[in-house]
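Model the whole thing, not chain by chain.
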Amino acid sequence: MARAVSNKTKIINTVVGGTIGFLIFFPILWIFIVSFKTEEDAIRAPMEVLFSSGWTLDSFAAVQARADYLKHFFNSVIISVGSTLLGLVIAIPAAWSMAFVPTKNTKNVLMWMLSTKMLPPVGVLIPIYLLFRDLGILDSRIGLTIVLMLINLPIIIWMLYTYFKEIPSEILEAARMDGANLREEVLYVLTPMAVPGIASTVLLSIILAWNESFWTIILTSAKAAPLTAFINSFSSPEGLFYAKLSAASIMAIAPILIMGWFSQKQLVRGLTFGAVK
Amino acid sequence: MGRITLKQVQKKFGDVEVIPPLDLEIKDGEFVVFVGPSGCGKSTLLRLIAGLEDTTSGNIEIDDEDATGLPPAKRGLAMVFQSYALYPHMSVRKNIAFPMRMAKIPKEEQDRKIEAAAKALNLTDYLDRKPGQLSGGQRQRVAIGRAIVREPAAFLFDEPLSNLDAALRVGMRLEISELHKRLDTTMVYVTHDQVEAMTMADKIVVLQAGVIEQVGSPLDLYRAPKNKFVAGFIGSPKMNLIEGAAASKHNTHTIGIRPEHIEVSTKSGDWKGTVGVSEHLGSDTFLHVNVDGFAEPITVRISGDIELKYGDSIYLTPIAEQLHKFDDQGQRV
């Protein structure tokens, strides 16, 4: 029998959960509200901001007038999708070999890859900056795509590795017996079977790349700047303009938020893939 | 053609020798069964033939050509796995078509072969379903269909029936035997179930710890087991193996007598004992008799019509011509 839960407990759980959820979401709600206020309203006391009556789109207009939103948006799309696809091309064969032809060092290699994520990025800032400068790829989409791909590669490989481990090797052996070569085995059997896993890996990688701000701000100035750099440009030395900053933030996070919303089922399914047989 | 010859084939996993060098000849069209307890290396041996494992040393020849280094795809063999290993994202039709697609066979010919295989295996109504929507027996038939359309030199079966329930297993056993008669292609079949081995095989290979204990027809193995291991493994219920005074009387270390080769009497006989548990199958009854002076109970197969109760005293007499003798090394005398 399922555990009995009294109605009182249910109500308490709902209220507590709802409150925590609201607290976490509150900053985003705040930014959303402030983005529709005038700069004068935006710096008032919190309660006054919430209940002041003026609603305006001026901030959005001002932001668009000062910077070309669409240009940054396309930079973000190209960099995050590009780095994800490039990452997949490298990660699928890597995860395949570690999942299906493991050696006694496979675990060590995986840990080593993960350990690169423990390194503070600023630690390699100077060498990477110099490399970019000498290769002439500072402020270029291709440069950012490569660096974001490298940053997310350990996570992509780890995720794919865990999904691939769930696929019974007998099925791949059957493909081999049926005359498939390695390319056909990966293309026609492994990849279609791992689609849920690959899809959530892709989503997560796009989100991580979209939100990456350390490298995108440092390695770009104008041409290749994605939305993270676009937000950053609104925290200017002349002072903080909360309403414009909020409007820029909303414009930057809206696409990924909407994408995340529509794909959350897939994301959750992928992240718990294999947890329950 | 499907002649498979193993020459001094050896397999080690690291330092562990799973299969010491062995020789084996499988003739074209033969139904060969590898049988043995779990962990005896029978599946590994099959996977070596398939090419899914590399040999440590020795040669595997298929139709007199060295196939030792060939990848599985190039060996012209088809395999049916214990888990069926169907492609879950493809329909039955696509599953069966897969090997032909890999071989780049024209579409019309593919369709013709799929129809023929589906008809032979009663799968016509299920061609557009996914494997997840099929029962165990149907999945097994799809796996066989996928193997048939390749027109392989030999079929390899790795415990194909062990995931099926008992009734279905008997049916599939017959279907596979019939398939063998119809196609007349070499089949190599791995099982731990000696009943499957006895009923299906032209030739049984009994394995223990990677070593071939005996090769022969089912009746050869039943009538003249080479050693105690084969004697105990082949036949159901198991052969009774008796040591001590009863064996010394026959001037040997161990005697063996099958349950069906013992006469039962309530009045007189060689061995006196009391009836223990009886297993009634209807046609037959298996009696477990505790014989005075024997370490283990003796199993006796009697007609189902004979009524004997727990605790009854009875006399047993082994049929002299059917007695097997083994020396202290366990070898047949």
